[in-house]
């Protein structure tokens, strides 16, 4: 079988696999119920929520990474007749393996080329290449030692501006701190986790093994997350949500939707992606301008909020892939909504999980 499989109409529904991915993938799987696609999910953890959400599942061996993982996954897809893979684990590398998958009948719906995905993962390289006519960025520089931190501090210090740090490669705000000139006992006792004194930072950054870090001007205004779905550089839909202390608000922001179009085109994105902005707002200055923070070539952890705006992100992607998306009749984005997420509890059955796990892993190549 060749990649013709994707163009010849088949009697059976198309099979789509989400390989190991974050738990928000469960929401995408649920959103595909009744869509006509046959949804599969695989994960190393038999109790994972993505497997609980999917009608068809299999287990991945633990600890398999890189080319070996890609090769194992290609065979797993071929054995099950998977028509399209929405990559999670090793998604950068899987873009490189896409031709081999296609030969075996599986289209890899990679968000971008391997190089582009890696560029987006490195905040220093990304910002260096960023087109500030799309959205401005705050002043920033890099450091990787105490002496380069001190030099960066001197170079970026400005009256009325707080400086912040984060690693060039990070996720979930790991390593992000706003630096205060003096230790701030009040905010410490209030539970403020994202502040650190300049002196404590100097002590920390004297440690060996410091990775490349960014020092930046802190954006003090509202933060937004924009969830997007695109196909081959063309934006399908974008949902802008403003993060607040009491939930999130879906906003009507044509300027940020325009930025989403430009981003999709500039990086040739296909699939679900996300970017984050924060407003620059200075005391006494009423202007609030959204600045670019980062682009993630994957679904955000908060995608569920944006789905509440009436946008079925994975279905739009899959329709674009199979060529059945009606670009002139895209679903409207409902804006002006306040959205909240409720937690649910699920019973995980370890005995069943364990039994399946051993059986599947026994079948997997070493
Ligand atoms: N320059 C900045 N000014 C203010 N807040 C920032 C700045 N950079 C990052 N942050 C905060 O840190 C969080 C994480 O930063 P981000 O660039 O999104 O990295 P990641 O999510 O990959 O860890 C952001 O959501 C934002 O709240
Ligand atoms: Mg982020």
From TrEMBL:
Signal peptide boundaries: none
Keywords on record: ATP-binding, Nucleotide-binding
Domain ATP-grasp: 127-322
Pfam family, one: ATPgrasp_Ter
Protein source organism: Deinococcus knuensis
Protein name: ATP-grasp domain-containing protein
């Amino acid at each position: 079988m060749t990649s013709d499989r994707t163009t010849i109409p088949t009697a059976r529904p198309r099979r789509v696999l989400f390989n190991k991915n974050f738990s928000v993938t469960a929401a995408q799987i649920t959103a595909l119920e009744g869509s006509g696609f046959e949804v599969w999910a695989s994960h190393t953890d038999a109790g994972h929520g993505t497997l609980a959400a999917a009608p068809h599942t299999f287990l991945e061996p633990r600890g398999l990474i890189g080319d070996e993982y890609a090769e194992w996954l290609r065979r797993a897809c071929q054995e099950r007749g998977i028509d399209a893979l929405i990559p999670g684990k090793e998604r950068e590398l899987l873009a490189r393996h896409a031709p081999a998958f296609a030969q075996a009948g599986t289209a890899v719906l990679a968000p971008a080329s391997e190089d582009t995905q890696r560029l987006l993962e490195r905040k220093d390289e990304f910002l260096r290449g960023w087109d500030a006519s799309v959205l401005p960025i705050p002043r920033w520089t890099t450091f990787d030692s105490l002496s380069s931190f001190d030099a960066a501090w001197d170079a970026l210090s400005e009256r009325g501006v707080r400086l912040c740090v984060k690693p060039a490669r990070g996720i979930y705000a790991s390593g992000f701190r706003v630096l205060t000139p003096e230790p701030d006992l009040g905010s410490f006792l209030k539970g403020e986790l994202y502040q650190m004194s300049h002196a404590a930072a100097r002590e920390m950054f004297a440690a060996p093994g410091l990775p490349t870090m960014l020092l930046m001007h802190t954006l003090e205004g509202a933060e937004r997350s924009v969830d997007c779905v695109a196909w081959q550089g063309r934006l399908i839909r974008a949902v802008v949500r403003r993060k607040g202390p009491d939930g999130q608000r879906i906003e009507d922001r044509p300027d940020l939707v325009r930025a989403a179009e430009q981003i999709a085109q500039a990086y040739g994105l296909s699939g679900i992606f996300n970017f984050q902005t924060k407003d620059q707002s200075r005391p006494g200055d009423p202007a609030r301008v959204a600045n670019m923070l980062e682009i993630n070539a994957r679904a955000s952890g908060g995608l569920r909020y944006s789905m509440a705006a009436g946008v079925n992100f994975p279905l739009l992607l899959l329709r674009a892939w199979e060529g059945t998306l009606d670009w002139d009749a895209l679903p409207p984005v409902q804006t002006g909504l306040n959205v909240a997420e409720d937690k649910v509890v699920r019973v995980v059955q370890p005995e069943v999980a364990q039994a399946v796990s051993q059986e599947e892993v026994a079948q997997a190549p070493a």
